[in-house]
Design goal:
The chain contains 24 helices and nine strands. By secondary structure, it is of the alpha/beta class. It starts with a helix and ends with a helix. The longest helix is centred in the last third of the chain and has 18 residues. Among the domains are: 100 residues, Alpha-helical ferredoxin (Fumarate Reductase Iron-sulfur Protein, Chain B, domain 2); 114 residues, 3-Layer(aba) Sandwich (Rossmann fold), CATH 3.40.50.1860.
Amino acid sequence: MDASTVSSEAGDRPKQADLDRCVHCGLCLNACPTYRELGVEMDSPRGRIYQMVQVAEGRPIGDSYREHIDLCLACRGCESACPSGVQYGRLVEAARAEIESSTVRSWPARLLRDFVFRRLLPSPTLLTAAGAMLYVHQVSGLQKVLRFSGLTKLLGPLGDREALAPSAEIPFFFRNIGLTFPAEGQRKYRVAMMAGCIANISFARLNEATVRVLRKNGCEVVTPIAQTCCGALHVHAGIRDQARKLARQNIDAVLSDAEGFDAIVTNAAGCGSTLKEYDELFENEPEYLEKAKKFKSLMKDVTEFLAGIELNRDMAPVDATVTYQDSCHLAHGQKIRSAPRQLLRAIPGLRFREMPLSDICCGSAGIYNVLHTDLSMAILEKKMGNVKLAQAEIIATANPGCMLQLEAGVRKWGRGERVAHVVELLDEAYRRAG
């Protein structure tokens, strides 16, 4: 371990200046999904910050602290509600890093976390194998038997998690990493596209739709061959050393391009939030801090990018009613709310209806729905109640994780609504126009 890594990890704890910004006013409480569901002060942003302050003042990290910090969705809804500008996302991620560095886990837990975070997520080969196994589970009929016979109930917690499984697509990955796609017509922009890790398996067709939409809008699209997992799940889990390793690889993969880019785009809001905050990982590494700042200056959510250019309006009508679910890390992390709605309203024939409380978390939150399935489903059930109030045929969102969660919600409480990414609806309108 080099000196820069040691110094970085030593600073992975909540900063006093960030803690001091909270005045404990409580305006964050109603914006917090876990507080809304549990009604427990220590499971609110204010309560969690109070506990962080106690730890900063010397209180040992115990099981109660770990539990309350772990139960946080890190949706950052409290940031939008806070009049003092508390950067709660920074605080909870730093608190989890501090917890991770001071926690001794059982060997099975260590093996599992090491496999998932350090081997599976960064490996296209292992992810492809996982996609193949999921595909066999689905096409063999086993998934249908389990879901419609009620046998999933016999599996206990595993059965609840099976309901969240994504649909594996053929092929099992986005095959075009390392390629360059020319713009349709005159080239106006040159963009790098981050394809993701799990999204590259379960949402390969979304990646392909994103490339098509960008090309329709005058973009030459490059998918850097050396890109890897963005590290968002690692940051959320407190595994910042691996997050830094992945961040360095992504930064170098993009910034080493000789011609340069007008923008770096992603269609995953959760990934984008972390990609835009790479500089926070390198506050003690001057060399990569400057690179991360340059990377950050180019980083755009795909809806943000498309809403900021002169959009190609050569679209055919899509005759449907749509509502929009705000991805937390787009609305609260990246402060982007109008761009997705602007794009939906630009599609001819599409009727837009606002969803009540659209920016309250759906309960997905990375792998939160796998780790805390019961609470996640309770939050999702309320979200689906708001979906019904919108009376829409399509639920649009801007994050693959939200799509998986909402699809599970439709299966359990819905009325057959279709779940789609904003870019997929744009792609549909363009393709219908020929």
